[in-house]
Amino acid sequence: MSLVDLDGVAYKGHEPVDHAASSLAAAREAGMRLVFVTNNASREPEQVAAQLTDLDIPTEPGDVMTAAQAAAALLATRLAPGATVLVIGGAGLRTAVRAQGFEIVGSADDRPDAVVQGFSPELGWSDLAEAAYAVQGGAWHVASNRDMSLPQARGMAPGNGTLVAAVVSATGVEPESAGKPEPTMYRLACERAGVEEALVIGDRLDTDLAGARAGGYPGLHVLTGVSSARDAILAEPGLRPHFVGKDLRALNEPHPEPEPAGDGWWRCRDGAARVVDGRLELAATSGAAPAGGGSSTREATIDTVRAACGAAWSAVDDGVELDESSVPEIVVTD
Fold it and tell me: Is 110 noted as a catalytic residue in this protein?
C-alpha cells in the first residue's frame, strides 16, 4: 500500500501535477492500493475524493485520510465522548469532531475542554482570538497540523502552522499536533486498511518524510512540490527520504541504490558525486570531469541526485562539515 500526499504530489491547488494521474493509474493496475493522506483539515473526505476524481484519479471517500480525522482521534485519547470542543477550522474538521462523539461549542465563553485548530481559508482574526481566549482559560489546544506554508497554483500560501503560530504567540502555549510530521495519520490509515507496511509518498521533507521516518515507514520524495533536490541532499537524518524521484512516475520505476565506488565517489547508474574537503562535487558519468560548485542552478539526472544524497549523507554522518554553498539547486532532467 502507498500513502500518497496531495498538495504538491497529486495536485497543486486545483491544478494537476504532471504525470500524477497516469502514474497512479499504473500503480493501481499493478495491484497497489492507494490511500491519500493530507495535512489539509478544511475539507470533507468526499470533497477531496471528488477533486481527485475530477483530475482523472478515481477516488472513494474511504481512500482519503485527513488531518481532521487524525486530530479528532487525538482528542479521543484524552477526552470522553460528550466533551466540549471549540472548532477553529472548516467543515471537514467539524464533521470529524462530531464523529468522535464530542459536542461542538461556538465560543470560549462556553469553557470548552479543548480547542482544535485546522486550516480554512475563511478563518479570520476573530476566530484566532476566540481560540486564544479558550486556551488561556485552560482548554487543551490541538492542531490538525503545523505546516507553515501551503502549495497553491500561484505559489506558496500561509498554511495552518502560520495561523496556529498566531494563537501560540498570544497564549505562550504550544499545542499538540495530529498531522505530519507526527505519524498518527499513517498509522490510522494502515489500521483502517488492515496492513502493517506502507510506502509514504510526499513532497515535503519536514512533514511527509519526517513522518515516515518517525513512524518507521519507507518514504519516497517526489520533486513536484515544496522540498527540492538540494533540500534532500542537505537533509538531516530525521528528514531523509529512502527514495527520491522526479515525480510520481518514480512509483513505477526501479530505484537503484547509490553505492560507494572508490576514491570518494558515490555512483548510481550514470550519476556520480563525492565530497572533497567538505565540498560536494558532481559528475554525470565516471569519465566526466568533476563539477564543484556554488549554489547556482545545475541540470542533472535523478541518478545524480541519488548519488549526491549518498555522498553527502555519508560524509556528514562521518563528521564532515558539508559546505552548503557547494550544493547547487538541481533541475532534474528526464
Answer: no
Q: Is 193 exposed, middle or buried (0-12, 13-18, 19+ CB in 10 A)?
A: middle
- CB atoms closer than 10 angstroms to residue 331: 12
pLDDT in tens, 44-61: 999 999 999 999 999 999
Residue 56 placed within a domain: no
Report how many domains make up the chain. 3
CATH number at residue 139: 3.40.50.1000
Q: Name 296's Cβ contacts closer than 8 Å, sequence gap at least 6.
A: 328, 329
Same domain, 123 and 156: yes
| One domain, residues 226 and 283 | no
pLDDT tens-digit map of 258-295: 999 988 999 999 999 999 999 999 985 434 444 555 55
Q: Is 334 among the residues known to form the active site?
A: no
Per DSSP, helices labelled H in the chain are 20-29, 45-54, 67-75, 91-99, 125-136, 160-171, 184-193, 210-215, 229-233, 302-317
pTM: 0.85
Q: Among residues 207, 198, 203, which one has the least CA distance to residue 177?
A: 207
Domain that holds residue 224: 2-39+181-251
Does 60 map to a domain?
no
Active-site residue identified among 5, 113, 208, 247: 5
Q: Which amino acid is at 102?
A: F
Q: Which of 7, 113, 127, 208 is catalytic?
A: 7
For the chain, the C-alpha Rg in angstroms (whole number) is 21
User: Which class for 191: exposed (0-12), middle (13-18), buried (19 or more C-beta within 10 A)?
Assistant: exposed
Label residue 188 by pLDDT band (50, 70, 90): confident
Q: pLDDT value at position 295?
A: 54
List all residues 6 or more positions away from 20 whose beta carbon is below 8 Å from its beta carbon. Answer: 9, 10, 11, 55, 57, 224, 247, 248
Under a CB-based contact definition with an 8 Å cutoff, are residues 231 and 37 in contact?
no
Q: In this structure, are residues 258 and 267 in contact, taking their beta carbons and an 8 Å threshold? A: yes
Domain assignment of residue 90, yes or no: yes
